[in-house]
Amino acid sequence: MLISFDKDMELGNELIDTQHRMLIMLLKKLDIALKRQLSHKVIMGILLEIKKFTEFHFLCEENMMYELKYPEVTKHEKIHSGLLFQLDIIIAKVNRKQMFADETLDMLYKWVTAHAMHDDARIVDHIKNHGFLPVAEEKHGLYLE
Ligand SMILES: [Fe+2]
Ligand SMILES: [Fe+2]
Predict the structure, then answer these.
(1) Does residue 1 sit within a domain?
(2) How far is CA 27 from the centre of its chain?
(3) pLDDT > 60? residue 145
(4) pLDDT category, 34, cuts 50, 70, 90?
C-alpha cells in the first residue's frame, strides 16, 4: 500500500489539514521502518509516536468542536474513543507479535483517511457554513510565518 497524503484529505481547514499531514508523515515513517526491517523496539517506538500524536490531534479537534458549538460533538468524541481503543488493541497485538506490522499499517492508513474524509469533513463544513473561526485557527497562520 502506498502511504500518501490523498488530495481528498485536504479539507480546507489549515489546522486540521496540517495535523492530518503530520499523521500521514508518521505512517510513512512506520512504512519506511518496516521496509528497512528495523527492530521491534523501533517499530513499537513509532507506534507510540502515532498513538500520542493521534491523542493530541483528537483533543485539538474536540476542543475546536466545543468552541464552535458543533452539534455532533458527542458523536464525534465517541468515534475518536473507538479509534483510540482500536489503536491500543493493534499496538498490543504488534507488541505480542500476534499481528504483522504491515497489516497494522494498512489498517491505520484506512482509519485515518476514512475518518478524515467522512467525519472530520463535517466539522470543516460546519466551520465554513457558520463563517466563524476558532481562536486557534485565527492565530494559526501567525505560528507558521
Ligand atoms: Fe482528524
Ligand atoms: Fe476527528
Answers:
(1) no
(2) 10
(3) no
(4) very high
The amino acid sitting at 68 is: L
Please say if the pLDDT value at position 137 is more than 70.
Answer: no
Q: CATH number for the domain including 94?
A: 1.20.120.50
| Cα(100) to centroid(ligand 1), Å | 25
Give me the DSSP letters along 51-97.
HHHHHHHHHHHHHHHHHTT-TTHHHHHHHHHHHHHHHHHHHHHHHTT
pTM listed for this prediction? 0.89
* CA 44 to ligand 1 center in whole angstroms: 22
Task: Kindly state whether residue 5 falls inside one of the protein's structural domains.
Answer: no
Our CA angle for 35, 37, 39, nearest 5°, is 140
Mean predicted lDDT score pLDDT of the chain = 89
Q: How far is the CA of 16 from the centre of ligand 1 (A)?
A: 6
pLDDT tens digits along 2-24: 788 888 889 988 889 999 999 99
- 33-41, long-range: CB within 8 Å, 24+ apart, which pairs? 34/101, 34/102, 34/105, 40/97
What is the tally of structural domains in the chain? 1
